[in-house]
Write a structure and sequence with these properties.
200 residues; alpha+beta; four-stranded antiparallel beta sheet; 6 strands
Length: 200
């Protein structure tokens, strides 16, 4: 497990929201220097926490069909089928589940005829059933970072205690702050607004 601190989490949050955000923008929001952000991102890349920078294309705007492919297969065939599916350009995400009714689940995208032809392009030995379900509406997936892991160390921006479980995240003037609870977030907000009022 990789140990991450508050700054690492803030950087990852910014990059998840917008992978094109400049180091300068991130540094300003995190109240640190550009070289610090660059060295942290380089470290996260080196550790494999960040594997690549990419774009999120809305396939529906391009007339590309998205579907979910469910493959029910015998346990001995799961590994082979997974490898075959990984080699297909239409397969965008691939999961092997513990559910005996759907051992392999993948998100596929492309021309519907090619998606339907996937079952003709893989070895169906030991496959019980294949279902292709067309996606009607695709919603943006949650990009928040699961903070319950003990390998991630966060401290509350208000009480400075270690955050256990999921942190409460709130933006103030485009800067991300993390709190252990909504009470601390509320107290921080009161203090923050009071300081703003006094500065005017």
């Amino acid at each position: 497990m990789v140990e991450l601190d508050n700054l690492d989490i803030k950087i990852l949050t910014h990059l998840q929201d917008n992978g094109r955000k400049s180091y300068q923008e991130i540094a300003k929001s995190c109240l640190t220097s550009v070289p610090t952000i660059k060295s942290r991102v380089d470290r996260l890349l080196e550790l494999g926490v960040i594997s690549k920078f990419t774009i999120d294309i809305d396939n529906s705007k391009l007339g590309i069909t998205e579907a979910i492919l469910l493959v029910n297969a015998k346990p001995r065939a799961v590994s082979r089928i997974t490898e075959e599916l990984r080699g297909l350009e239409e397969v965008k995400e691939l999961y092997v589940t513990s559910d005996s009714d759907a051992a392999i689940v993948s998100r596929v995208a492309g021309d519907m005829q090619r998606i339907l032809a996937i079952q003709d392009r893989i070895n169906l030995t030991d496959v019980n059933n294949i279902r292709i379900i067309s996606v009607k509406n695709a919603f943006r997936r949650d990009s928040t970072i699961p903070l319950a892991s003990s390998s991630i160390t966060l401290t509350c921006a208000y009480c400075e205690r270690k955050v256990t479980g999921d942190a409460v995240r709130k933006k103030f003037d485009d800067k991300d702050y993390f709190f252990c609870c909504t009470t601390c977030q509320g107290e921080f907000e009161k203090k923050y607004l009071k300081l703003l009022a006094n500065a005017q």
